[in-house]
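// run 5 | inverse folding | seed 20
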């Protein structure tokens, strides 16, 4: 038998092994998320006992520790929802563009949402949470379309490298525009700059309830696009030959991803790199089938953002480091690694 035969046999065996482990990895991830969420309500600038955590979860706010835990509960819930949305939107964007570098932050979508919100605050005095969400989604949508159109110009269409460069250039330009809007307005610059860092410390049940319907719609659209993304991964021509309406499938999936990251940005500010790191980690664990990749990306995204929020509370006690800074410190080296290893190829 020729030497090349064993690798040909081993590859399907590896794929079968990944398929068998998919339910197990999802169960493990959910268990880890539960543990991280429980730690999030108990760990902070002031640690509390297990009894206080249980009492606060039961509704008691009589003691100081129990009141502290009660305040951390909406913060933890927001971190879980935001992390899940960002991880899921990153996986969908990578699938839609077939770009291993696709991420709401790298493609400038978060920055577009931020510019829209900041401009609305400065010009019309936008202050309602629902208004933030609608404006952020509009800004994210316009930016996503603009980056894709610019990245599609020229020979070869929307290649991963051209999309990444278009997103980086657009993000830099929009960041400058944000500064131009904020700097002359001393009355709003302090609060806006704090929001632009990205964090979940201001999470409340009121803000969560207002953003939840948008996240639910984005989640539904994204998960329903799993089979379409599997088809698109084969190439547009083959997907069309299999009966897939390529433009419709790509548009619905992209809108679901933009809806998720736009809504999250409105509540937390721009948080980067979660949508880049998480899908790559998920592919290593379960492969490229989006029917499993998307749910696991949501769970691992929630784990990553919640755990980095906890880390930000304890590394500089009694002060806190916003989660947007921690995710940047984690994600930037990973971004460099992906660029060097993938050579910016298509997925």
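// decoded
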């Amino acid at each position: 038998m020729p030497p090349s035969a064993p690798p040909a046999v081993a590859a399907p065996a590896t794929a079968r092994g990944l398929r068998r482990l998919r339910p197990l990895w999802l169960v493990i991830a959910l268990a880890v998320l539960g543990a991280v969420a429980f730690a999030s309500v108990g760990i902070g600038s002031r640690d509390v006992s297990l009894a206080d955590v249980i009492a606060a979860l039961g509704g008691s706010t009589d003691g100081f520790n129990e009141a502290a835990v009660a305040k951390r509960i909406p913060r933890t819930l927001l971190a879980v929802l935001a992390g899940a949305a960002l991880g899921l939107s990153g996986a969908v964007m990578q699938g839609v563009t077939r770009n291993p570098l696709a991420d709401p932050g790298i493609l400038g979508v978060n920055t577009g949402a931020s510019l829209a919100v900041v401009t609305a605050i400065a010009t019309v005095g936008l202050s309602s949470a629902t208004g933030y969400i609608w404006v952020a989604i509009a800004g994210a949508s316009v930016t996503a379309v603009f980056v894709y159109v610019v990245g599609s110009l020229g020979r070869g269409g929307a290649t991963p490298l051209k999309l990444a460069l278009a997103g980086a250039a657009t993000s830099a330009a929009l960041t400058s525009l944000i500064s131009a809007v904020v700097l002359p307005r001393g009355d709003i610059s302090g609060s806006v700059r704090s929001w632009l860092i990205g964090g979940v410390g201001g999470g409340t049940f009121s803000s969560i309830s207002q953003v939840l319907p948008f996240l639910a719609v984005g989640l539904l659209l994204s998960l329903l696009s799993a089979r379409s993304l599997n088809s698109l991964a084969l190439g547009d021509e083959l997907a069309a030959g299999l009966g897939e309406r390529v433009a419709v499938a790509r548009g619905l999936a992209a809108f679901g991803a933009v809806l998720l990251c736009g809504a999250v940005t409105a509540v937390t500010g721009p948080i980067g790199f979660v949508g880049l790191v998480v899908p790559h980690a998920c592919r290593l664990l379960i492969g490229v089938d989006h029917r499993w990749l998307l749910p696991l990306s949501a769970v691992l995204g929630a784990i990553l953002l919640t755990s980095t929020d906890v880390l930000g509370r304890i590394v500089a006690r009694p002060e806190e480091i916003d989660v947007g800074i921690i995710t940047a410190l984690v994600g930037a080296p990973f971004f460099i690694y992906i660029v060097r290893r993938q050579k910016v190829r298509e997925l």
